Amino acid sequence: MLFGKKTLLAASLAFFFASITPSLSAQDLKSVLAKLDAASANFHSTIANFEFDSSQTDPVPDTDVQKGIVYYDRKNNVMRMGIHIDEDNGKPVPKVIVVSGGEFQLYEKLINQVTRSKKAGKYESYLVLGFGASGKDLQQKFDVKYAGEETVGGVKTERLDLVAKDPDVLKLFPKITIWIDPARGVSLKQYFDEGQGQSRTCTYTNIKVNQPLPADAFALGTDSKTQFVNR
Fold it and tell me: Which residue positions does the secretion signal occupy (predicted)?
């Protein structure tokens, strides 16, 4: 009889917590998005060290690790991103990626070539997820689900699961997860499921918000011999 009461109590508690969990998650999400709105209003720029870990399981398991510095800024509601890659798999392979106004530019210093594309939708998704995005920005482009708290690099973050509303972006990234510090409006970690066994994990350290950026933050560093390729 005692066992029966314990079982009934356990079932009742399980039902109770199951019934309040969605409500709590909704409240947590609302709180996080509100903090992002507040942080975004005061956002101007960000500097951070990054590590991009790309992996695939099919058809042949492989990994690729890139390290460098990334810059973000926002002026007149226009976001810019400058990625300065210093090394690839431990070897110096200098590259610069600049995304601004819907244009993507990749400068590969070793071959002195710039590849340009006006179709920067894939990379502009990084801008929204990167730094300075408001809660409204996220909700406009993604279905957002609160996934709890998690400590990343000694910092308490809020984990958000994102599913893109744009079908084209959804094809590129079936699912995205970000670990965000809502008080500063910055991501400490991002995970991109690219489908077909491929994924990318981005981690950010030494994050500085609203600090002056170097003059070459969004400069490619080309010269008179640089070749330009349009895609």
Answer: 1-26
